[in-house]
Write a structure and sequence with these properties.
Blueprint lengths: L1 H22 L5 H15 L5 H16 L6 H15 L4
Helix pairs in contact: 1-2, 1-4, 2-3, 3-4
Length: 89
Amino acid sequence: MADENQNKDTLKEAIETLDQITANSSAPRTIKKSITDLVTGLKSTEHSMSVRAANAISVLDDITQDPNMPSYVRVTLWQAVSKLEGIRE
């Protein structure tokens, strides 16, 4: 049970980190849209928390490959990935 609560806290932190990007007016619109969709998937209860985290990491990896992405957005995305990697079954 402690692991589940820790995972919930970690997921909440990752979502808050991603929300920082969507709230930033200088972040590209396409990236904001991808992040918004990603956060919706993370909040879904359709799959286990670890599956949602793994799916999000995969999507974030693709997003960070965009050469037009501002570096501060990329760093923030990596912070979210780091948090999501801590979520385990």
